[in-house]
Input
Amino acid sequence: MRIKVAGIGLTKFGELWDKTLFDLAEEASLEAIQDSSLKPPDIQAVFVANMIFSKVSNQDHLGATIASQLNIQGAAFRIEGACASGGLAIHLAIQSILAGTYQNVLVVGAEKMTDASISEVTSALMGAGSEAERQAGLTFPGLYALMAQAHMQQFGTTREHMAQVAVKNHYHASLNKKAQYPYEVTLEKALNSPCICSPFTLFDASPITDGAAAVVLTSASTNKGVYITGSAVATDTVDLSSRKSLTEIEATRIASQKALTQAGVKISDIKVAEVHDCFTIAEILAMEDLGFCEKGEGGKYIEKGITKLGGKIPVNTSGGLKACGHPVGATGVKQIVEIAQQLRKKAGLRQVEGANIGLTQNVGGTGATVVVHVLQS
Amino acid sequence: MRIKVAGIGLTKFGELWDKTLFDLAEEASLEAIQDSSLKPPDIQAVFVANMIFSKVSNQDHLGATIASQLNIQGAAFRIEGACASGGLAIHLAIQSILAGTYQNVLVVGAEKMTDASISEVTSALMGAGSEAERQAGLTFPGLYALMAQAHMQQFGTTREHMAQVAVKNHYHASLNKKAQYPYEVTLEKALNSPCICSPFTLFDASPITDGAAAVVLTSASTNKGVYITGSAVATDTVDLSSRKSLTEIEATRIASQKALTQAGVKISDIKVAEVHDCFTIAEILAMEDLGFCEKGEGGKYIEKGITKLGGKIPVNTSGGLKACGHPVGATGVKQIVEIAQQLRKKAGLRQVEGANIGLTQNVGGTGATVVVHVLQS
Output
């Protein structure tokens, strides 16, 4: 498999009161199309990734809406799989190119979360989880906190290990002008911020974010450029209570093994990765389930600085969901944009030296959907 | 292109107070999987088509939810494009098979519309249209009524022509046990029912429906069975006011020409069709834009009985959206189920003699998305 990432586009992430979902989608899309040296009419299909706009703004049919806004008359789709919507849209866009049906496609992930009230957004986001667990009173911080508690008990992971994820990702975000929170935080600040759901403090959680990311994918094949060489999706039960383990996201293991096999590389070949740190424990689980370290060692692995810029395998150089922000439908696409920038050697202050193979991991819910991509230059 | 329709499944359509969306999706899916002689673990990807469940029941992530309910551990997606969600899901499932990524995939379209209040459902459905036109006070009956008024003025189409669509489709539904309204209506009854939006009476509109439809698509290729040989999507502006014409759905013309070319057949080769008669005028427009008759002649064409069972090209043998029902996310999948039954010669009292090539046309909004499929046996 060899799909060219021909263009990338990304808006500022943050609380963007003066922009609509459509403003954001257009800005990222036009940037990606321009970057690809194509024109809008060259795009034959548009894949829109979005989770909550239908609920908070009662606007569906985003595929055709955004396509016509961009003066693209081709096919258009909206893809949704909770917070994995972006990764799923990339995966399906790739299929349509591999099928030979479309040659140039646009994937745009966009989310406008700050126009609704916090209670409305919180309720909308719970649509990613199971009805039974919601009725039992669980929220997403609650679900991930259960996973964190189990990990702490079983493997001795500490609150400091988790806080280190936030400290690292804020440091990376401080080098990224597009990040929602482009500033550093200290370990003390992270640990002593208000508890939101034990063992989590505020700094263990990703924020509510507006933003959009776009990529143009093409069938073009030359020796130059960045290519997606592996793309895989795996699923699991939506309810956490039906899983075999609270301390493993099995779908990450399955999807990453498939994607790495497709790409013909090993996890040890990966030089840079963007993973789904919706909560700090999620990045620890990702390190283990992707195979960067042994099960139970994720906290210590991160503490060693291996995944910080300058370390052996920098992870979430964008700042991750934690500090770059988490506009849910955009996140899976933004991960591809960040890795493509790294592989193009255009990541500026965040540049990982020698980055030639990268990986993205995008999670829906507590791991009911996982999408893994491998990119190579 | 040659994608096998290996299995089909369909629930009763209607006001199904005793069933949830998940009951309906499971029933149709298991029927389709059993019909294909596969087992659930053989299915590598699940494509769920749904429009309003996220809004009326606050449950997203339907891909993983329904996949795990069926004990399928593969990839899973939710595809949305308003009332064209079903057709789009079929189109994307086909791409994933053509890509060589998946060999056996399930597409299930499901919608549960009667659990919400009428005002809630009406509001949810308006998400298929443009915000500007909604703010101007337009509803979908209003939008299609504008198209009908223009067609009447421009081409002399009459209320009787439109009512004939309802009479024909109710007759077909009277032969279909799965239909929501399996009974005939007279022309007088249709014409004299209450006006809902001039020139439409109640019988010009499709109903609010619960139901699900599923198909198993495979890469298997033998001489036997039913195959999808053409699949195309076209889009247009979501707002009707930006279109060149009120009396043509251009996306139908573009998508059908592509799909027919792919299949290597002409419109005159089609022996049976399921088209998107959300309002009676939509079936008249479909006849013209698909090329069954000249522009402006749709009303007279239907009046001649050509599209009634026993006629040359029976259209909407299921009863169509009008009388079989219109569970929005399921509709595009149900159209494939009906044509597959016809091509298998298993349509019972509705069987079209000599049916070997069929076509489906699935519309989102007022034609912002159109999906056309060609099936052959």
